[in-house]
Amino acid sequence: MKVDIIISADDIKEKKILNKSVVVIDMLRATSVIVTAIKNGCEGVIPVLTVDEAVKIAEKHRNEYILGGERDAIKIQGFDFSNSPLEYNEEKVKGKTLIMTTSNGTRAIKASIKAKNIIIAAMINAEAVVQKLIDYNEDVVIINAGTNGEFSIDDFICSGYIISILKKRHPISLSDIATTSLYIYEKNTDVKSFIKYANHYKKIKQLGLSKDLEYCCQKNIVDAAPEYKDGIITIK
Fold first, then answer.
1. GO molecular function: any one (predicted)?
2. Average pLDDT of the chain?
3. Which residues contact 115 (CB under 8 A, 6 or more apart)?
């Protein structure tokens, strides 16, 4: 099994992901939200690129659909929820379908549609993601959503954590960038202490969302690896 990494949503190319299992990471905070919402009974998550698209879908099914997301880490006006995973508790999301648009994460998911499998990952469900990769046994491309087209420390170290688990359980061959990600994680297993240097981490901290950061840096608190297929993210 070959493992590679793409460092931002803007760097996704069809030839790199075709016929491969893609793992999309936006740990701060879109993929952490998706995993949490589905764990808490959300029927599925529909990722979209624009606010207008999200609103149009929701208007057709207002009692069944909820709106969530952000722009520049801030809740979108008129939406039900922001991009804080702590908002997506069972009481609010169970039995609902979430329509979501974010600055980076949903772009990365939508840009991955040519992959064979698209798995949604974060620190909080890394073990479950690895098990699914082993089950599929395809070459892997880990996509870091990044921040506005730029490399993001947080997604990169999360990639390294996933690779570290996979390496212990399955024979793998790493690209240079995947090797670097693994090395960074192995030297910084206390993830929060390392990603505090990330610009996006600092942005979320400045917004007073320290509890989100604490939550998103936890390891393996969710035993689920949602997948994107036919326009919606669900547990297969």
1. sulfopyruvate decarboxylase activity
2. 96
3. 17, 18, 19, 20, 21, 22, 141
